[in-house]
Known about the structure:
- The protein has one domain: SPOUT methyltransferase, trefoil knot domain (Alpha/beta knot, 3-Layer(aba) Sandwich), CATH 3.40.1280.10.
- It has helices at residues 12-25, 42-48, 63-73, 110-114, 134-148; strands at residues 3-7, 28-32, 56-60, 77-80, 86-87, 98-101, 118-121.
- A 7-stranded parallel beta sheet has the order 3-2-1-6-4-7-5.
- The mean pLDDT is 92.
- The longest helix is centred in the C-terminal third of the chain and has 15 residues, at 134-148.
- The protein is of the alpha/beta class.
Amino acid sequence: xxxxxxxxxxxxxxTGNIARTxxxxxxxxxxxxxxxxxxxxxxxxxxxxxxxxxxxxHYHESLELFHTYxxxxxxxxxxxxxxxxxxxVNFHYREDDWLLFGSETVGLxxxxxxxxxxxxxxxxTQAGVRSLNLSVSAALGLFEARRQxxxxx
Length: 153
């Protein structure tokens, strides 16, 4: 099943909400440091409420270490970005995909984007709206991948 990866997340409630989504769907969540908060942050825990025992959480100290980890496990890096090449509903997902989302302030680093098999965007009608909330974007990307792969029941 595709996995969610947050690269340098900064806002604890966003990460907590994404963790809750991952818990509800049985999806692995990978956090790539440095983080803008402590894993024990009360806001992070509050957003996940009592779902934390159900989160398959993995922490990686750096993007380079995470890249090595992924090479051992296999699969494609898919970078979600406002300037992505493919519309997220038109892209064909695979079971071993890694869905990468960058920090709320700057998105995915250039190095991560350069290592992605594809960059994906979630289209927005209003040009003045820079981007969607990170937790919304992660949920949209994950659920579209799951829908295409037949994991919605």
